[in-house]
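[agent] plan:
  1. take the single chain provided in the ticket
  2. run structure prediction with default settings
  3. attach structure tokens to the ticket
  4. add a short note for the reviewer (M.T.)
[agent] executing step 1
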Amino acid sequence: MTSWDIKPQGVQGHLKTVGGNAGELEKALNALLTAMSEAAQAAGTAVPGSQSGMTPQGPLAPGAGLAPGSAFVAPQKALGPVAAALGEYLTERKPEFKSMAERIEACILGAVAATNEYLEGDLDQAKAAQDAARSVNLDILREKTGGKK
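[agent] step 2 finished; step 3 output follows
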């Protein structure tokens, strides 16, 4: 790179925008997790009612209650196929969600570190910060910006 022309106020404005968008992404992911959890609970199970671990709803015929120590009550709540599929989907996507968060953090920390180094006149360190952000090396970036490891 032959020359740099960084305007710190412009970087600050972009970081505020990115931070706001990151907050919106976090809200969307939390809403996704909540909705999928509710969907899994609402989907029910594929086992007979007495084995699902669920309490019967509505009026029961006299003597229709479960006998003490009944062998038909599952020790755990049964998991239906929809709930299992949703759980598997979220498990498979977890690395992608984590990667999104890490890339956003790396971009923000890299921009802050590179701008600070630029302002201090150390273009080699600014380039190193930029390269660390590009490779999502959070340890180096957190160290440069005084963040936690």
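[agent] step 4 note for reviewer: Residues 81-119 form the longest helix (39 residues).
[agent] ticket updated
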